[in-house]
Write a structure and sequence with these properties.
CATH class: Alpha Beta
CATH topology: His-Me finger endonuclease fold
Oligomer: single chain
Strand order of the largest sheet: 3-4-5
Radius of gyration: 14 Å
Shape: globular
Structural class: alpha+beta
CATH architecture: 3-Layer(aba) Sandwich
Number of strands: 5
Helix content: 25-40%
Distance between the termini: 25 Å
């Protein structure tokens, strides 16, 4: 987690928003319908928008994702995440 976001993600406002959004999606990933795990910001949080609740706490900017779909969102199909490792098309970490 980025240092600038740490305080936000520990805030009561985020926890309340995250939990309400999770329930509104019945706990299911919005992309594949597997059990959801991560409430993801469609517009990524940045130092410039971290204090803008229309970005950080807006349900229209949120998406419930499972770990695999979240990995695909952030790491794509072929991005090398560590020397000799990348995510495959299913979001699984594989050796290359």
């Amino acid at each position: 987690m980025k240092d600038y976001a740490r305080k936000f993600y520990k805030s009561a406002a985020w926890r309340k928003c995250r939990d309400a959004y999770f329930l509104s999606q019945h706990g299911l990933c919005e992309r594949c319908s597997d059990p959801g795990l991560i409430v993801h910001h469609k517009i990524y949080i940045s130092p410039e928008n971290i204090n803008d609740p229309s970005i950080t706490l807006n349900p229209k900017n949120l998406e419930l994702l499972c770990q695999t779909c979240h990995n695909q969102e952030h790491h794509g199909k072929s991005e090398v995440v560590r020397n000799g490792l990348r995510f495959d098309e299913n979001g699984n970490l594989i050796s290359i």
